[in-house]
Design goal:
alpha+beta, single chain, 55% helix, 10 helices, two-stranded parallel sheet
Length: 529
């Protein structure tokens, strides 16, 4: 795996191989596992009490306070580091990479020298009128085989026989050893690189696996960072909503005082109080959605679900980039790891076509073997004059190659499909890079616009607060709501701008992720970190 990662250059990360589950001591053997499904009479369901909006509101406020006071502060850096060590999604990506590596190791084993040894012991008893003649036979067979790089195999064997007459009229025993060497070599069909097809593909698959894992790490960073920044925006929205609630409560209190002094209508006082209560209800719902989003985030990064966390207000600290569109597209077509894999897979398809053409050839195989017997188990019992030789040539006439012709056409179709798919992928990547680069400009403009909207909304609310008596309750509540909406939109635009920069780096193949899950700062040489 380390050798495969060298092809990716500096900064590539190997999976953590220490996270293995212990094998169970015994497997479940019960063919009828029990099922827990109690009947309706065994269930205990207690109806709730009459709805008490005040009590529910206090309960929600207490839950929100508990989250803020007792939760563990979780930063973006800590979230990324924790996710790389505990996230199930990250673990599955590592398992896929490891599985590809094990497939290669299995294939390499088949191409190395393989040793086989067997010992068999048999007893033979022949009966003649109730008298048995018993013999004992021991056979020891040892073999070494090795596959040749361009087809065929070579093997060496050593076969030892020992026979002893246990119960017989005349006591006798025999023993002997035979060593042999055999060669099987194809000259046409099955000869050449086609013989190493499984080995070649396994090695290339490991490179693909390394690229896929590194590509996953980058997309995983984007996913975790995006979810974390969404939580930051939600938390900021809650803070904006809380300030809005306080403003509406002040408005309701002022309108109530004005009504009691006879300076305003009951309708205005009741309307202001109702607007304040409605804002409290919306804030409670927002808190519940926020807690649900945090729980889902904890599941995603592998954080213990029962532990409370607080999200730290944070940003990625990214600034807009100055990149030429043509240069960005050109670099993306060179740097995208998934595109490089797809290009190599076109080469795989071409190689399979060549292999299919090899399957159309005639069979022409050479077989050669030599054996040297010995009447004694000792090495001195061999006599070079007793060597037996065998050489043969087998020629197979290609009378029926219909299935091979069909296979050749299928591989040619798959090759054309791979070429067209590669062309489509390149065009799609070019579109994605252009779109992501334009999005940076769009979100820059959006952020600037939303910041102006906040300033305008704040000026409008300040002018109302300077002389509230001349403005209706509806206009005052609308100004508070507009300021809150403008602040929420500004925070969302700031998040979208940073994520658009990450999206561009990801689409252009220029996003780099460190061992701890954080991205390398833009413009920094990763060798110096």
């Amino acid at each position: 795996m380390a050798e495969a990662n060298e092809s990716l250059g500096d900064g590539s990360i190997l999976p953590n191989t220490i996270h293995w589950s212990e094998l169970p001591s015994s497997s479940p053997e019960n063919p009828l596992p029990p099922t827990k499904n109690p009947g309706i009479d065994d269930l205990t369901l207690v109806p709730s009490l009459e709805l008490n909006s005040s009590a529910i509101g206090k309960k929600l406020d207490a839950a929100a306070k508990e989250l803020e006071e007792n939760g563990t502060l979780l930063s973006l850096e800590e979230s990324l580091l924790w996710a790389t060590g505990h996230s199930q999604e990250y673990r599955f990506a590592e398992y896929d990479y490891l599985s590809t590596t094990l497939s290669l190791l299995n294939e390499l084993h088949l191409w190395g020298p393989r040793f086989f040894e067997s010992v068999s012991v048999t007893t033979d008893a022949d009966s003649t009128d109730g008298f048995y003649e018993t013999s004992l036979s021991v056979v020891h067979d040892f073999e070494i085989t090795h596959r040749l790089p361009y087809g065929g195999s070579v093997s060496a064997t050593a076969l030892t026989n020992f026979a002893d007459a246990v119960h017989t009229a005349t006591s006798s025993n025999t023993k002997g050893t035979t060593v042999g060497l055999a060669l099987d070599l194809p000259l046409l069909r099955g000869s050449g690189t086609v013989a190493r097809e499984t080995l070649i593909q396994s090695k290339r698959n490991l490179i693909y696996g390394a690229r896929t894992f590194e590509r996953f790490r980058r997309t995983f960073f984007r996913s975790i960072a995006g979810d974390y920044l969404n939580l930051v925006v939600q938390r900021q929205s809650l803070a904006n909503a809380q300030r809005g609630v306080e403003s509406l409560r002040q408005l309701a209190g002022r309108q109530k005082a004005l009504y009691e002094s006879g300076r305003t209508r009951l309708y205005d006082s009741a309307d202001a109080e109702n607007q304040a209560l409605a804002s409290v209800a919306r804030l409670s719902q927002s808190w519940e959605r926020y807690r649900l989003a945090i729980d889902r985030f904890k599941v995603k990064i592998g954080w213990p679900i029962e532990k409370l966390v607080r999200i730290e207000p944070a940003t990625l600290g990214l600034r807009p980039l100055e990149v030429e569109m043509k240069t960005a597209v050109s670099q993306a077509l060179q740097y995208r790891l998934d595109l490089q894999t797809e290009e190599n897979q076109v080469g795989d398809a071409y190689r399979r076509v060549q292999n299919a053409k090899n399957g159309m050839l005639s069979d022409l195989d050479i077989t050669a073997s030599a054996s040297l017997p010995s009447e004694d188990s000792d090495i001195t019992g061999f006599d070079g004059r007793e060597v037996d030789y065998l050489v043969g040539v087998t020629f197979g006439v290609p009378l029926d190659r219909e299935r091979d012709r069909i296979n050749l056409r299928q591989q040619q179709i798959l090759l054309e499909r791979a070429k067209r798919s590669l062309r489509t992928s390149k065009e799609s990547i070019a579109i994605e890079v252009r779109s992501s680069l334009r999005n940076i400009e769009v979100y820059q403009f959006t952020l600037d616009l939303q910041e102006r909207n906040v300033e305008i909304a704040q000026l409008g609310l300040n002018s109302i607060n300077a002389d509230p008596d001349r403005v209706s309750v509806l206009d005052q509540t609308r100004a508070i709501s507009e300021l809150q909406s403008a602040q929420d939109a500004r925070d969302s635009a700031r998040r979208d701008l940073e994520l658009s920069i990450v999206d561009f780096l990801l689409q252009a193949g220029q996003l780099r992720v460190q061992q701890n899950g954080n991205m390398y700062p833009i413009g920094t040489n990763e060798r110096d970190l």
